[in-house]
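In line with agreed milestones, work has continued on tokenised descriptions of protein folds. One protein thus recorded appears below exactly as we store it:

>
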Amino acid sequence: MSPQIKALSVHLLTATGAVFAMLAMLAAVEEKWSLMFLWLVVAFVVDGIDGPLARRYHVKHYAAEFDGVLLDLIIDYLTYVFIPAFALFKSGLMDGWTGWFAIIIITFASAMYFADTRMKTKDNSFSGFPGCWNMVVLVIFALEPNFWVSLSLVAALAVAMFLPLRFIHPVRTERWRLVSLPMALAWTFFAAWAAWVDFHPESWAHWGLVVTSVYLLLVGFVQQIFPDRTTELDAP
């Protein structure tokens, strides 16, 4: 197989995320939330593997006619932002004005963040919360906290998108990757399991979601507070 075909195949793999987004949206319209999240988890897995494959097969050189970054951002907005926001609003977990607030602030703030050229740091982490609303909303579905808790969480993370706070990329952030990557894989497993059992309140997967979510949310802050003195990082 030629390098060009291998590189193009990576773009085609990335584009399947749009198909999974449509399947998730169809499930969401019918309020089949577990099925929706299962499709979003599949899209999440594709998003996790297409980046390393793109770098391995040098898509910027061998398939330069397609912009892989733009393609990835389009699909990420659908699967990370748009569909989860719709689900949070339509499910009734945030009723009345709180639902309207959530859907407006999530979609608006994320559109601005995804267009921000400063979102990446020199160590391949994110500057500001990277708009992973699919993960946030899935945890809300699993735990069903008081809507004031959900409202506070959404508001805080929306503000955090534009603050100089560091959030890791579990694949690309090298520091502590031996822990971060297994944590991300574990989160994916717990998310799929929680959706598979229709978010049963007694599912042990919920505890796994809490532990892995707290780690992925806070580890970037810890790295920021205790920087690696051997590596030159950009200023926070």
Q: What stands out?
A: The chain has one domain: 3-225.
